[in-house]
Design a protein that fits this description.
The chain has about 140 residues and is an alpha+beta fold. About 25% of the residues lie in helices and about 20% in strands. The protein contains 4 helices and 4 strands, in the order ββαββααα. The strands form 2 sheets. It has a two-stranded antiparallel ribbon. Strands 3-4 form a two-stranded antiparallel sheet. Strand 1 and strand 2 form a beta hairpin. The longest helix has 16 residues.
Length: about 140
Amino acid sequence: MPTFKGSITTTGKSEAIRLDKALFRLHPEFRQKAKVRAQVISPGHALITVVDDEAASIDNEDPVVTAFLAVIEKDLKEYLGCRSRLSRTSLQRAVRLTKGVKVDDNETLPEDVTQDSFPHTDGHYAHFGQLRGRCGTEP
């Protein structure tokens, strides 16, 4: 996933974030005059989203989960040949790792939740694009 550098500057009486022109060439949804929303997701990290004027705003939407799901959706579409069913071993492992875990849909997670807060995770994460070589499918 490409990254883009920029700087914070002043334009008129407002603060502005300048970013490499390559971002705008690769992602035309960030065209000039597009409406955007910036959400600080942790100190020093912000998520910038193009806001569709016609779409209803969802106030209780988690911006990090929404961004994560968008990456998963993109990978699923881009790497169709990499999709497969979970193996019986993987399903058994999932059951073993979640055994005894109580779920409450009404529970509010604390603001400082990190991977270290979840002792059942083993820290192995990858998106489908990183697994390309395993399935032999190029985008």
